[in-house]
Amino acid sequence: MNPKEAFEEYCTAWANHDHIALAELFTEDGVFEASTLNAPIVGQENLRKQLRIISNSHSDIKTETRIAIETKTGAYFEGTYMAKIIGTGGRVDGAPTRADFRYVASIEMKDGKIQRLHEIYDSRPFYADERPRMFPMNRLSPYWQGTVDANCTEYSVYNNMYFPMVYSRAPYEDYAALLEGVTLWDVGLERQTQLKGKDALRFLDYLSCRDMSNMKVGDCRYTLLCDEEGIVLCDPVVLIPEEDTVWLSHGNTDVTLWARGIAMSSNWVVQVSEPDVAPLQVQGPKSIHVMNEICAEPIDELKNYKCKITEVAGQKAVVSRTGWSGGFGYEIYPYSSEGAMELWNDVLNAGKPYGIKVTGPIVHRAVERGVTDTGYYTNSGMNALEEVTASLVELDVTSDFIGKSALKQIQKDGVRRHSVGLFIEGEVPRLEWNWKVTGQNKAIGEVRWAVHSFELNRSIGIAIVDVAIKLGDIVAIEHDRGVVKAEVTTIPFVGRGT
Questions:
Q1: Right CATH number for 3-121 from 3.10.450.50, 3.40.50.280, 3.40.630.30, 3.40.50.410?
Q2: What is the rounded CA–CA span in Å between residue 396 and residue 386?
């Protein structure tokens, strides 16, 4: 095979997402270099993995070679690459997010195979040129500089703190890193409401819709908090790091003010505060190797939804087997943010041998696994019996909790809505606000989460709809690009181990 033929087959395999054929065009020790890569990819095994991730990030791939010049050992090519980026939801004006650029490539051959392929691109137009400007009315995470250095291009505001959401990569690259490697997330915005005192556990039980009375030191538990009308306020992960101390690691809600107000007008012997604890998430199947590198003692035996106090990179911290990924991973809760950037850099350095990537929350995977947060029920009037995790509400316990009587009345009268999964027709735009769901010529609910599923290669969503809507029903969704059909299905969409 001559260089021109090899490059043509390479372009064809790339357009077909055939990473096996791509890798087989190279020698066993073949090298692929590109101006968007931090380091060359060497060897067929690494080529198969990395070229699959890169090519599966794009769709509708087309290449056009304009110039091909052969040399004694290889060839030079000049052309254009055109493709859509999968999973971004497109631009604000409805146009797809694209990777269209001119390239120059040089190829070196050995025994009819590619020994080295080096590609240089004229630009990366599908990535933001710079991060957005910030405003001083919100707080910066103590890991802020680390997210800037990692080229975060989009932030949201969460608990009055800037939350890094999107980095300068195609979504599938981050998704693959979570499922196959290890990722580092800045979740310093995930604030802790601390309950401290002899009544801390009893007070927690009063706040929670789930029975928390049997929790012990080292336990973690997911729960729902409601107001007096049964409306969901928050869905925190609760940790008991030490005796008479409870941390509610909560989403975008003023839980500390809520709990403090209740405690101040009561006889509970409990202090409510927000400690200086800014967590990190280390998620993915290789996270165990990274954590064992930086923890003072091995954490192989730490079970799911358990935590322990240890030293992480020389800093006192709580480590838990939890995280917003629907899979294997850990959270690190340092007792102070004073050494935040040292901790961040130590995690990064420990993760380098495992290809660690700094990412935001991988929403595509979370929705596949039916994992939501405050963004699902905020501004919805959703009560706890309508939420995705309604099965956790325990109304038969003898102890009282906030919202219990209201929820019992709702249960008696009949729950009017429920949360369902949707298989959505076509490509979905980015969900900037909730989409109306209609059926039988009337409004029956709204889609509150929607993404492209890389696992299922289709659009999926989570909606709250009239309780009369059942599995297999076909409904209509109104989004930015028109009206499309959707089929009601179960949550989660995929199993944990897939």
A1: 3.10.450.50
A2: 17
